[in-house]
Write the structure tokens for this entry.
Amino acid sequence: MTSSTFPRGAIRIRNANLSFGSDATGIDILQNISLDVLPGEFLAILGPSGCGKSTLLGAIAGFIRLTRGEIFVDLKLVQKPDADRGIVFQDHNLFPWKTVIANVEFGLKMRGVIKAERRQIAKEILARIGLSEFWRHYPCELSGGMQQRVNLARVLVNRPEVLLMDEPFGALDAQTRLQMQEMLLGLWEEYGMTVVFVTHDVDEAILLSDRVLIMSRRPGRITAEIPVSVGRPRTLELTTSAEFQRVKRECLEYVRPETDRAAVVQNTGRASVVIQAKI
Amino acid sequence: MSAQPIAINKTRDTNARPERRPRGRGSLFRLVHRGASLALFIGLWQIACQAKLHFLINFGNVPGPVAVAGAFIEFVQSPDAARHIGASLIRIFSGFGIGAILAVPIGIWIARSRAVEDTLLTSLEILRPIPAVAWIPLSILMFATAEQSIIYICFIGAFYPILLSTIHGVKGIDRRLLNAAQSLGAGRWEIFWEVILPGAFPSIVTGLSIGMGTCWFSLITAEMMAGQFGIGYLTWESYTLQNYPQIVVGMVLIGLLGMLSSLMVRKLGSVLMPWTRRGGTAG
């Protein structure tokens, strides 16, 4: 838990259901998901590809509407996207037509902050993430890791209560990913927002989070909840510790049958996916 | 992580220009090569005309480059030159301008609203396969003056490429960018202004560039059939007056002006889209 001064960013999800298409032929994406995230908590959601974890994130962000159920953030019903809930995708996040500084300033501009002030705030946060000298560059001139750092800065400039991350480091090489994870933990300590982090990387989930939720293959349900008892601050060395390995074994116990089943279903063709999903 | 800005060469927009080759001895050689090739082409043309070569093509009737050059100088010095070129340019920019002013907003509107798409696109799609040339007889009936009908033909030529590229550009905007903008607090108007317009812009510029080409094509045809001035009229008039070198003068002018106006559109696009130029304003 962080030394956050304000207890904001509590997420409450109740009976979230989502299906596409009509009742008879529809595909269930999310099934009866209920969960609570504490203010300032770092929650990781682990699951196989296509299990609906990104959809769940989109629903919390407010641009995917649930078929049934409700999501509250700080007791407010989520109905549309809001700057209180920032989101970071894996790639293609930044506006290619805006320079780095203009991307970071975007949220402040939307709130009507005057130019001189927002430029100063944006420059401060760029300095914090170590990209001061690149402020006039366009996103296409930056590496993938640098783009994701700018992206984090762009979201954090809004001081969101909740930070939603959809496999944000999935497209990065192993070394860059470690640096990004370390930077994210630092920013989380500093800003104290609630983080919901979707990934399919078990190590990443444990290294970052306070708690790991395992999601099943479609229809997405939460099949396990594993508290991460590894102490903080988290460092790379901790990944070889006995406690880390114990948590990892526990996670894998739940993850493995899920991914295996997902693979079987995918191999038996699309028709069976629908049938299985209905069962 | 290295502190270098690593330019990623992903398959970006088709408007993004490839990296320019460094100028060196290789590029000088290529320049000479191209010049020599052009000289050879003109030389062969002159020889074929002087020999009155007659094999499939009757070069006896084709004016040679020397005659054309003479006629070109004569034409440029004559008072008619400004009148013909001016008339064509006014028609091009009126037709193209009206086309762009209508096609871009209608395209965005169609792409953003299903109701508008269902209302407008069907009729527009039915009219689309009709080439601008086929409009000439009706447009003469529709408008009071020949000038108006020629501008209308130019408009038809420019309208569709711009419309379709705009629709394509708006629909092609990455969903994640729209979602990101919403999550950063952007409202409907801000999303339009900050995301949709710049996001579709490269595609719109492509449409403008193609539209400029089809606009010239339509203009020349219309002028040949209905004009009293203009380069298309000049070209056809030269044929009926048996002033053969001037036919080629007209053709060369069409080529040059068409090329220049397309270049202008592309240049303007690249000035307004610094992010598609590698290197950009970054320093």
User: Anything to note?
Assistant: Strands of chain A lie at 11-20, 27-37, 42-46, 68-73, 76-77, 85-88, 162-166, 194-199, 211-215, 222-227. Chain A is about 40% helix and 20% strand.
